[in-house]
Design a protein that fits this description.
Length: 82
């Protein structure tokens, strides 16, 4: 692993189910969403809400911030397929 703080660290399976937070862009009727939770070791876990047994990726806070920034920046240029 590099020391730049932007790498994916590991897949985790030991995360508490009550700590997941759903994106504010997801509604309660859509089962397809990505959820996140901070971990005790100061990483950010990202998991698939409909397939939690597969585990979750953990990212450094810097990698998480870069990911969120990229999503927000691309929202203005998103064009749905017709």
């Amino acid at each position: 692993m590099s020391s730049n703080g932007s790498e994916v660290h590991v897949i985790r399976h030991d995360l508490p189910p009550h700590a997941w937070r759903k994106s504010s862009f997801s509604d309660d009727t859509d089962p397809n969403c990505i959820e996140m939770q901070p971990t005790e070791d100061r990483l950010i876990a990202i998991g698939d809400s409909k397939d939690r047994p597969r585990g979750a990726f953990t990212l450094s806070p810097h990698a998480w911030a870069t990911f969120v920034h990229s999503i927000r920046r691309s929202q203005g240029s998103y064009q749905p397929l017709a």
